[in-house]
Every structure is written in C-alpha cells, then in structure tokens.
Amino acid sequence: xxxxxxxxxxxxxxxxxxxxxxxxxxxxxxxxxxxxxxxxxxxxxxxxxxxxxxxxxxxxxxxxxxxxxxxxxxxxxxxxxxxxxxxxxxxxxxxxxxxxxxxxxxxxxxxxxxxxxxxxxxxxxxxxxxxxxxxxxxx
Length: 139
Hints:
Layout: H1 2-11, H2 18-29, H3 42-47, E1 62-65, E2 81-86, E3 93-97, E4 102-106, E5 109-112, H4 117-120
Antiparallel strand pairs: 1-2, 1-5, 2-3, 3-4
C-alpha cells in the first residue's frame, strides 16, 4: 500500500491513475529481495529463475511507443506518451497518450527518463514534432 501511494504522489499523477501506480508497485515488490524470504525474490521462488531487471523503466516518464496504425506511411510512427507500467496480458509497456486519452501497449518504446510530462507540464523543448518519427528505422 505504501509503495503504491508513494509512486502515485511522487509522480504527480491524477488520482484516476491509482490502479496503474499500485499495479507497478506490485510488479516491483515481486522483483525485490525480501528479508522474510531469506534475500530471495517472490518472482524467483515462483518461477525458479532470477527476474530480468533490464526492462525496468522510470514510472511516469516521457515515452514514445511504436505505433503501427499510423494513418499514412509518411505520418509520425509515434506520439509522446506517459509510461504507466507493464502489461499484464501482453509482453509490452503501457503508454498513456495525454491528448487522445488512449493507452497503447507496445514492445517497442523509446524512453526519455529525464522528462516527466505530469511534472514538467508538457513535452520538453528539446523534442520537436520532427523528433516524433524516432521509429522510422523500424518501418
């Protein structure tokens, strides 16, 4: 409970995102060593292998998911989003588009872990609309 509340308040997210904050808190707790488990993680005990930490990213940071459903091949392949966590149904990251209020689940995501849209107020000036096509090499 405390971890979820801390994530939510530190992220400056609206209260409507409490489910995402608590979901990522559970995801992290299951991958952290526990004293009650003799320094092992719940994930390791359940699956018999150490968790993979390479896919961890900063909650609520700016991210750009790869969008396949671009209306035209010359349109940008991404849009600025807020990283909300990890999908429970698919292998991918949950990304929230603040303009359309849509959540995208994508495996291919570029993270900018120094920018936080809900804290900074908007996309940083260092990123222009020309930079949104960061997935042009994937097309």
